[in-house]
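Q: Could you fold this chain for me?
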Amino acid sequence: MIAYDRGMLPFRRLLVALAGRESDVSLLHYAGMLRRVLHEPEILCVHVDVGSDRPGLRENLCARVATLLPGARCEWATGDVLDTILGLVGVHGSDMTLIGHSSRSRRRSLARRVAMKSPSSVWMVPDESPATLRSILIPIDFSRRSADTVATATALAEAAGLEECLALHVHFNEALVTFDEFDDILAEDRDRAFGLFIAPIDLHGIWVKPLFVDSCHVPETIVHTAGEHGCDLIVMGTRGRSPSAAVLLGSETEQCLMTSPVPVLAVKHFGTRLSLLQALWDERLRKRGDERFT
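A: Sure. Below is the predicted structure, expressed as C-alpha cells.
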C-alpha cells in the first residue's frame, strides 16, 4: 500500500523563492497558509539578487518576511537565479519549493525550469492567488507514478481538512466509428479500472471522486476542468525512467505549469533524490520494478 507517516507529511522543509517584487506579499500569505496546513514545517525564504541596485531592498524583504511569515529564515544570495535556487534546495534539504510567477509572463520560464530541474517537489503559485486550499484536482493516468501522486494529494487534503478530491482521467478514443453500446462498455471499463487503481492507495480518509473526460487536448482539459469545478490546486506527477531522470517533467505537467491560472504542485516521487546505489537497494523501488528502472 502506498502510504506516508503522518509526522512526515506531506512536506516538512519548504523553500520559498522570493522575487523582490510586490507579488512577494501574496506568495508569503500563501506560504503562511501552507505552514498552518502542514503543521509548522521549516521554512527558508530566499531572494537571489541579480544586481537590481534598489536601495533598501534586502532590509525591506527581510522585514516583510518577518511580518508576514514570522519565524521563517530569510536569506539573500547572488548569482545565477536558477542555479542558486537549485543549490539552496540541496543545501537546505527542501522537499518542496514554493515559487510565484507573473501573470504577464506567458512562458513562466523560471518557475518552469525550477520545476523541471529541482530534486524537490515544486508548488507554483500565480501572482495574487488566494491563500486557500479548498478543492484539489488530481490528473491521473492509472500508472504507479500517478498512484504516488494521489497518495500525496490526499495526504495534503487530509492535512487541510478536506473531505474529497477530484481525480481526472482524460481519454482520447481514436476510433472514428463506434457501435451504439460502446459508451456504456467504455464507462464500465473505466469504472472498473479506477476501482483497481485506487484500491491499494492509502487515501488518508479522503473520498477520491473520479471524473472521465474525452479529449485529445490533455493540458487544456486539465486547466479547464480545474476552473469548471472551482479547484484551487492541481496536483500532478513527474516522470522519468531512472532516479536521475525522474526530475524531468511530463509534457502535460509542463504545459499546465505554463498555462494554469491556479496553483500547480508538481510532485517528485520517492527515489528522485536517491543516488543510483541507494535506489537499487531501496526495498520499495526494488519491489515495484516500475518504469524508472527500464
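A (continued): The two ends are 22 Å apart (CA to CA).
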